[in-house]
Amino acid sequence: MLSVIPPSEFEEKHIEQLVGKITKREGFFRKNLLEEITRKSMVWMPYYRVQFDYAHSEKDSIQRYGETALNGMFYRCVKSEKELFMLFRPNYLKYKIFRHSPQPKEIVGSIVPINFEETLGNFLKRLNEVKDELSAQRRELNKIRANMRKYSAILPPMKDSREKEKTLSEKVAKLEATKNILSLCLNTNDDISSMKVTGHDVFYYPTLVIALKHKENGTDRYLIVKLVKDGLIRKQLSYDGALTELCNENTMCKEVIAGTVMQES
Fold this sequence. Notes:
By secondary structure, this protein is an alpha+beta fold. The chain has 2 domains: 2-114 and 200-264, no CATH class; 121-186. Helices cover 38% and strands 29% of the residues. The strands form 3 sheets. Strands 4, 5, 7, 8, 9 and 10 form a 6-stranded mixed β-sheet that branches. Strands 1-6 form a two-stranded antiparallel sheet. A hairpin with a 5-residue loop joins strand 9 (220-230) and strand 10 (236-239). Helix 3 packs antiparallel against helix 4 (159-186).
């Protein structure tokens, strides 16, 4: 028995419509499909739900509780910080979990062991480094802007000042984005000085892995379709852009997903 997030009710036409929007086409007036579906496999994608306690500061006597969700299938394949970001799915924690016995044609994705204390600890360290650098860069940026405003009534801003202000603005925006992503992965906006992983378990998210082959050059790629309807306004099926990118751009991830769907044969 698996702990699963059950799929939404949908018809085959919903899958066809979604795939039709994503597959490559050519032609100006009449669009001809350049890719054909070679395989569709229902895969239960494994995720670790990781629980942890954290404190705001070393003197903070209150232990707070947090949890996040991390893909347990591709962890060993990722090579960069950006790719690791793609494996976190804290929003999946909002769904109810049910017990389910996999059916004959359903594939259960394999999981790899993860050192959660090290992984989340490195995320926390990186988050606090980004926050410190962001604070310092904001102070410098505010100082430059204040000087530009101060002398703007007398002289237009010097070229060096404008270029420095632009460079710092871009750096601050990038640091802010990184901070937000790291906070999203840890599933908290709180300031955290320390954390301790207290437990973890595994649940499975329903996906449809679709293998496509280009009709002209023979290249293949994979689409990872989420079988749970979501959306703020209109609930509908969608594809997992992050995992789709990983399974096509990262060679090791592509090998893992290819080996997984071949289990059905």
